[in-house]
Structures are given as C-alpha cells and as structure tokens.
Write a structure and sequence with these properties.
heterotrimer, A mainly alpha, B alpha/beta, C mainly alpha, B: four-stranded antiparallel β-sheet, 12 strands, globular, C: mainly alpha, 10 helices, 0% strand
C-alpha cells in the first residue's frame, strides 16, 4: 500500500509542473503590458517603469517563472491588485462556500442516484427502468446553471417558497446555511444524480453477469445480501471512479451556479477578478484549484486502493 | 425405490424464450442419484448438461425460462418451490461448484470470509464458531497452511487451491447432494487428479450424492459410479460405469469413446472424429437426434424418435437398433454421414 | 499471361462490391438503432430550425426598440422581447446558429489535432511521455476556469472562445485515440506490416487510425455537446460571445436580472440548449450502442 501511495505522489510532480507553466504562461502571454494595464492609461512612463521593476517584469521570462514558482511553493502567491490582501487569504475566504456547495450537491447526487441506479438495474427491461433512464438522459442534458435559473423561476417566482439568492455562512447556523444552499445544490446535484444513476445501472448490470454472483446465489444467500455484498460492492469501483471525475466537473459547474445564486464563492471571485483584471488573483486561484483537482484525483485513487484488494496487494 | 434416492429428476424439460422463439434446451431428461454415489453427466458443449444442473438449483433467469416435469428432493418438487425455500436449500442441502474458479469467487473478500458467509447464511452461528468450522473443512481438503489461506484473497491463490476452497465452501453445511460442473476442466492434470481424489473422499466422508458434469470420458472412467450421456438435450444412454465402458451401446457413446486417444493409440493415425456437427437447438430433427451423423441410421431412425429403454441390467439406451449394433448385425449404411 | 490483368480487375471489383455491401449493412444497422436515429433526427431538426428560423420572422437580432421592451410572447414577438426591445425569437435562432457553429468547430478542430497527438504519442514512446504529461496537466484544470482565464487574457471574441475550447478539449480526444491506438499497435499484423517494410506514416494512418474511428466519433460528439454547454456558460458569465451578438448564453445573462418579470428570456433559450444537448446525448448513446453491440437481450415471456 505504501509503495502505491508513493508512486501516485511521484507521478503528480510532472503534472503540477505543467499546471504551473500553463498558469504562468497565461498571464505573461497577455497582450499589452501588465504594469500599464494596472496603472491605467493616465500613468506616466516613469511610474509604469517603476512598477515593472517592482513586479520584476524586466527580468528574463524563465527567471520570472522560477521566482514566481519559488514564491508559490512557499505559499506566497502575491497580493491582490484590488485590495492588497494576500492571494492565499482571498482564496481561502471565497473557497469555503464553494466547498460547502460542492459537498452538499455531491451528497444529494449520490443519495438520489445510487438507489435509483440499483433499482433500475434490478428491474432491467421493465417500464420503470426505461422511465428512470429517460429521466436520467434528460437530466444530463440540462446544464447546472440553466437548472439553477429554472429552479429560481419555478420556486421563487411561481411558488414564492425559498429565499431566492444569497448566502449564509456556517456561523449563522447549519440549517440557515443549508437553506440558502439548497436550490444551488439541487441545480448542481441534479446533473450529478443523472450521471451517477446511469453509471450505477451500467456497472450493476455488468457485475450481475459475473460468475461470483452465480456462486452467491448457489450458496443460498438472500437477495439483499447478494445485491449489496456481491453486486453493489463490486460495482462500486467503476462508480467511484465516475464520482471522482464528476466531482471535479461539479466544482467547475459551481463557478457558474454561484453566479446565478449570488453566492460569494470562488466563481464570483474569478468573475470579479476577470472584470477587475486582478491577475495575481486569477493566477493564484486557477493554480490552487488545479492543485486541488490533482489532490482530489489522488484521493480517489487512494480510496480505490483501499476498496479493491487487487490494486492494493500487487501492482 | 425413490425413497432412497437423494434426488430424482423425472421428465425434466427446460424451455428458454429467446429472440428466435421458444428453445427447449433440456427435453425429457430423467435420472436419479443415491447417497455415496457419483453420477457422471457427459456430453459435448451445448448438450444441456449445465442447464440441467442449473435447473436443479433453480439458478436460471425465471423471466425467460419455464419448466415441465419434476425434480424430487427430500420429498419436495424443487420446480414448485418459492424463492425463499429454495435459497434455504441452496448451499445447505444442495451445493454446487463451478469450472471457472478465477471468476467464481468474489475478488473483494477473503476466501475465509466467503466460506463463513456460506455458513452464516444457513443458521445462527457466531463468527468464531463459523471460522472454526471453515478452518476444519478447508483443512479437510488438504490445502497446505489452511489458517493462512483463509485470510487471503482469491487472486492470491492458485487454480487448484481455489477449487479446494470452492469445494470447502460447498461442503461446509454438509449437503446431501453436490453438483460439480466441470470442476477440473481448467486445471492441469496433476491438480486434476488431486481434486478428483478429494471429491471421491468427500463423497464417502459426507455420504453425499454427487452429480459430476464433464465432457471428458477419462474422468468419468476414473470417478463415476453411474453415467448419463447427453446429446442435444436428451439422455441417450444411462448405465453403470462398468457396463458403459465394457460395451457402450449408443453409436454416439461409441463415437465418444473412440475419439479418446489412449496410450495404445497409434501416434501416426489421425484422431477419430464423429462426422458432422450437432444440430442447432432451434432446429431439432424430428426423429432420432443423432440420425444424421449415425453410421447405422435407417428410415425409422429419421422418422421416429426412439425412447430410453432398458437394454441390459442397469443399462438404458435411446436407440432403435442398439441390439443389432451390439450383435454386429447392423450394417453401416451411412458411413461418413454428414450434416450439410 | 493474358490471365494476369483479368485476375487483378476481378479482385478490385470484388473488393469494391464487398465495401459497398459493408457500407449498406452498416447503414441498415444504424437505422435500426432507435436511439441513434432519434438523436440524429433531433440534432438535424435543430440545425434546420437554426438555419431557416430567422427567415420566417420579420425581425432582426440587433434591432433595438425601447418601446417594446420586456414584452411577453405575443403574435408580434413569438418569444417576447428583451430589455432592449429586441425580438427574442430571432435572437434565439441566431444564438443557436452561433452555438452550433462553435460546437461543430471545436469538435472538428480538437478531433484533428487530438487524433494527430493521440496517434503519434501511441507510436513514438519518447513523444508519448512528453505529450501525455502536457495533456495530463491540461486536464488538471477545470475547463471553465481555464477558459475564463484565457479569455480574460486575450479578450472575449468568438474566435478566442473556439480556440480556448479547442485547447481545453483536445486532450480528451487525444487520450481516447491514444488508448485505442496503443491496443491496435500491439496486434501482430502491425508487426507484420513493419517487417514488410511499410513506412511508419502509412502504418499509422492507413492501419492504426481506422481502428480508432469509432471511439473518436463517440468522443467527438461528446466534445460537441460539452463545448456548446461551456460556451453558453462563458457567455452567461459575460466572457463569451460579446454583446450585442446573440448567443444562447448571453440571452440568459440578459434574462437573469429580470428573471422575476420576464420568464421568456430564460425559458426559450434554455429549451434550445436542452434540445441541442439532449439530441447529442441520445445520438451519443445510440452511437455507442451501434459501434459496440452488447449481447442480445432475451425476450421476456410476459
């Protein structure tokens, strides 16, 4: 197990390297001079030059890269051009709502989808199977932000139920926190649920054909035990892989859903920073999110190793 | 007397509903097995031997199959029982072992856990007691270092060890009947011999009836007490092993025996094959199913399906002309008969 | 000696006939697949709507008309008007065109580039390590964030949107093509072709490539759908197709602020997006079925 973890960690390094290069390149490829953009069109040439010197923009590009990278590795991603706070601080502030939302949405997605997928697989070919799968097909066709808009239309405008937009941090109490997050989480979770239902059904059907399921029946085990211990548990591995992949799409979708519901998360941070041309924040956020992605994938791989003894014990 | 039979299959028919219509994979099959006896069921792929065993265990998909006839076990007809009752019988009174051990064991659980599961499914047994019983039965299979083995996962064991585990798992509840579906086909010859010996020993230790399914006549000769030879869904010869090998009566059986290379076979000669091929189950011939490939077939054979009749003591055969063939008075009319 | 030319023409004729038969068989199988046909049908219908839709309406997408702002659907304006008084129906039609164009361009470009990357990576080991590290790195980014950043840097124009999406989605195609190519490369007949002296280019394009086509098609249709969604998201955030040009995303953007009073600005472009994506998903499912047939299902006796 240890060697498995170590190997996975080592393979991360080149990936993160590429991520760093891409992020750095993004800003440095931009047309125009960042310093004059920051200072505006009325700045004097001397001021621009001074800022350029300060920002290290006159040094050769590779040197700038390693300087930036070195700083990044020690946790210094620079300061926001907008309000001078360290980028890392800004990121953490805006990160919490996004994380809450993503986790809430993922829980909704899994809780709804697993039973539906299992049920559809067990009743393959019957009308309920067709109905569930058609529903799932439509579900993956509605982008989460559109779902958000439609939910707002329906619940708030037609029915006048939940508060429409806005956000309450955890410190305001768990229930209030969740109340504001409910519609956004459903918008995000809906497409998740549709995806997971489909893969669950497919994985279950695949596993149901395996010889060990026949052995389980021949042993006289009860239906419930066969479904859970010998079918779902084995199907869970591909399902887990998809959940891992979709979690990262979830975070991407959260960006837009936050915009729809006015939640002060990473999505809002990015969009505002783009408007304000706050490059350190854009750079830092994208870097940290990519880093987070890589970590999540690693985490999923590790869970894989835990769940499947074949992975754990030899390769 | 039927009272002493462990299992009595009477006129079993198994129909499948497929895209091509209704297919009868098992057509009027009857046989019985007694305690401390191994019945071999032999035949080519597709003759219905596996379907018969799965019909006994009722492992087939109920949505697309239906049955006729009776399977009498412990005074009950298995074909009429509900799933609840059946799952109590499976694994406890009737057990089954399969050919492919690689995929027949769940890769996510240790083999020990899987054996304990079999025990706990059929009675309130504490985990400790179940673990002890599992160890006991696994040791009885002759596996080296059984305590260590039980903690391992299926992919860590060799084919032979996995088969011993499967046998242990099947026997842990001391069933009255064991169905073995080609358990040694995937094993090398040495391991095969060991497993066969193990089965014979377990049979007498547990006083069980065993249905041993195989396509290998050599294995039949080695361990079976009685044999049922199947062809295209029917039993075409049913006899004691001695009688069968001394004088096989059905031309198909004769063909099977002839096809087996032996030590005495001439290494230069071509291997014998039965000419033609097995007809499709959706296109079953009207008369004798083997007629098209049989060197002795006559008009009667093609027109009328023969019945399974007693030929000599303990030896039944489904052939119109078995007597003439045995005497040597039947002429080979269809030497080299071939199905197009 | 007069037999030789006779023989070669016969062989060629037989080969052509065989190819024709295979093609008609494949078409028949495709048509029998309900999913694929439905999906393709829906997509075609939407394309037709997008092409012909604007022709039936007297309005223009950029015509501002403050008097008629935020009017609900009526005979005059079939899908209502927006906050500038522009006709939503026409804007939705043009927006659909833009989305389809973008989806198609991205799918095409990323396929072309992705196939090249995938095939050459599979064939040349050292290139593989380099290219795969880069694609892994690119795939480590959430597509939308990368897209937003790139557009922030280079400015929101339709071209930049397409280019960004190509950068983001090419890795997906490259990976799929590469894994297929790797499998095919191991086949003995490839080794045989080597031994016969076939050039590497020939082996790659004439022998390995055709075997990757089926997964390529499935993946490309996925990229088509997902790039349309991503473009809609970008426009919705204000970093996609620039106003005043209509795109399904930016109509939704305009509609967000007036959602409580103008539901039509959300429902109609939304329905169009759902229609496009649904058509693609159904087609994708059908294609996967068609290209990778599973075992037959037994007919229930009920």
């Amino acid at each position: 197990m240890i060697s498995y973890i170590v190997k996975r960690l080592l393979s991360l390094i080149p990936v993160l390297g590429v991520v760093a290069v891409v992020v750095f390149a993004l800003v440095h490829l931009s047309p125009g001079d960042p310093a004059s953009v920051i200072l505006g069109p009325d700045a004097s040439a001397a001021d621009v030059d001074r800022l350029r010197e300060e920002l290290g923009l006159n040094r050769p590009v590779p040197q700038q890269f390693f300087l930036w990278l070195g700083n990044a590795l020690t946790g210094d991603l620079g300061n926001s051009l907008y309000n001078q706070t360290p980028v890392t601080e800004v990121f953490l502030d805006y990160f919490r709502p996004t994380l809450s939302l993503a986790i809430f949405a993922q829980i909704i997605g899994i809780a709804v989808a697993l039973p539906m997928g299992v049920f559809a697989a067990l009743n393959r070919g019957k009308t309920i199977d067709g109905a569930l799968m058609s529903f799932a097909l439509v579900g993956i066709s509605i982008p989460s932000f559109l779902m958000g808009l439609l939910l707002i239309l329906f619940f708030s405008v037609f029915l006048n139920w939940l508060p429409v937009a806005g956000y309450a941090p955890l410190s305001d109490g768990l229930l209030t926190h969740l109340e504001f997050l409910l519609l956004p989480a459903i918008s995000l979770g809906f497409i998740q649920a549709a995806l997971i239902t489909r893969i669950t059904r497919a994985a279950m059907l695949e596993v149901m054909n395996n010889a060990y399921v026949k052995t389980a029946r021949a042993k006289g085990l009860s239906r419930a035990v066969i479904v859970i211990k010998h079918t779902l548990r084995n199907a869970f591995i591909p399902i887990l892989e998809i959940i891992g992949q979709t979690f990262t799409t979830l975070i991407a979708g959260a960006v837009v859903v936050e915009f729809v519901f006015n939640i002060p998360g990473l999505g809002q941070l990015i969009v505002n920073s783009v408007e304000r041309r706050d490059f350190p924040v854009i750079q830092g956020t994208v870097l940290l999110v990519a880093f987070g992605y890589v970590l999540i994938n690693l985490f999923i791989d590790l869970i894989y190793g835990f769940v499947d003894p074949r992975v754990r014990l030899d390769q | 007397m039927s009272a002493s039979h462990v299992i009595d299959v009477r006129n079993l028919r198994t129909h499948f509903h497929t895209e091509k219509g209704r297919v009868t994979a098992v057509d009027d099959v009857s046989f019985h097995v007694d305690r401390n006896e191994i019945l071999g069921v032999v035949g080519e792929s597709g003759c219905g031997k596996s379907v018969t065993s799965e019909a006994i265990m009722q492992l087939l998909n109920p949505d697309i199959t239906d049955f006729e006839g009776e399977i009498v076990f412990g005074g009950e007809n298995l074909l009429t029982l509900g799933e609840d009752r059946l799952s109590r019988i499976r694994g406890k009174d009737i057990s089954m072992i399969f050919q492919d051990t690689t995929s027949s064991l769940n890769p996510l659980y240790t083999v020990g856990d899987q054996i304990i599961e079999a025990l706990q499914a059929h009675g309130r047994v504490s985990r400790k007691a179940a673990a002890e019983a599992a160890l006991k039965v696994v040791s009885a299979t002759g596996i080296p270092s059984p305590e260590k083995r039980l903690k391992e996962y299926p992919h860590e064991l060799s084919g032979g060890m996995r088969q011993r585990i499967m046998i242990a798992m099947a026997l842990v509840c001391e069933p009255r009947l064991l169905i073995a579906d080609e358990p040694t086909t995937a094993l090398d010859v040495t391991t095969q011999a060991q497993i066969l010996d193990l089965i014979i020993q377990m049979k007498s230790d547990f006083d069980m009836g065993v249905i041993f399914i195989t396509h290998d006549m050599g294995v039949v000769a080695e361990i079976c007490d009685r044999v049922a030879v199947m062809y295209l869904g029917q039993v075409i010869e049913d006899s004691t092993v001695e009688s069968l090998f001394e004088a096989p009566l059905h031309p198909y059986t004769k063909g099977l025996m002839q096809a087996m290379p032996t030590i005495e076979s001439d290494p230069q000669a071509d291997l014998y094959t039965i000419k033609g091929k097995v007809p499709s189950l959706s296109d079953v011939p009207k008369g004798c199913r083997f007629a098209a490939r049989c060197p002795f077939s006559t008009e009667k054979c093609v027109a009328q399906p023969p019945t399974l009749d007693v030929a000599t003591k303990g030896h039944k055969v489904r052939c119109w002309h078995w007597q003439a063939i045995a005497d040597g008075s039947a002429c080979k009319v269809n030497a080299g008969a071939e199905v197009g | 000696m007069t037999d030789a030319p006779q023989f070669s023409t016969d062989l060629k004729a037989t080969k052509n006939r065989l190819k024709q038969e295979q093609r008609s068989l494949a078409i028949k199988r495709f048509l029998a697949n309900k999913l694929a046909v439905c999906g393709l049908g829906l997509t075609v219908v939407i394309c037709l709507i997008a092409l012909l839709g604007p022709l039936i309406s007297p309005h223009e997408p950029l015509d501002i008309n403050p008097i008629d702002r935020l009017k609900p659907p009526s005979l005059e304006h079939w899908m209502g008007t927006d906050n500038f008084g522009r006709d939503i129906y026409v804007r939705v039609m043009y927006g659909t065109r833009a989305s389809l164009l973008i989806g198609f361009s991205v799918a095409m470009l990323s396929s072309v580039i992705g196939v090249a990357i995938g095939l050459y990576s599979a064939y040349f080991k050292p290139l593989d390590h380099l290219l795969m590290r880069i694609t892994d790195g690119l795939m480590a980014f959430p597509a939308i964030l990368l897209a937003i950043s790139v557009i922030a840097v280079f400015g929101p124009t339709t071209q930049n949107v397409i280019l960004t999406l190509v950068v983001v989605y090419t890795p997906l195609i490259a990976r799929v093509v590469r894994s297929n190519a790797l499998v095919v490369k191991e086949q003995p007949y490839i080794e045989a072709l080597h031994a016969l002296g076939a050039s590497r280019t020939r082996i790659i394009w004439r022998h390995i490539f055709p075997n990757t086509v089926s997964s390529l098609i499935v993946q490309a249709s996925f990229v088509f759908a997902v790039s349309i969604i991503t473009e809609a998201m970008l426009s919705f955030l204000g970093v996609g197709i620039p106003a005043p040009h209509p795109s399904l995303g930016n109509i939704l953007y305009d509609g967000k602020n007036v959602i409580t009073s103008a539901w039509w600005m959300t429902v109609f472009p939304g329905a169009m997006i759902i229609g496009i994506v649904l058509g693609q998903n159904i087609l994708g499912d059908g294609l996967r079925d068609f290209l990778d047939p599973h075992t037959h299902k037994a007919v229930s006796k009920r």
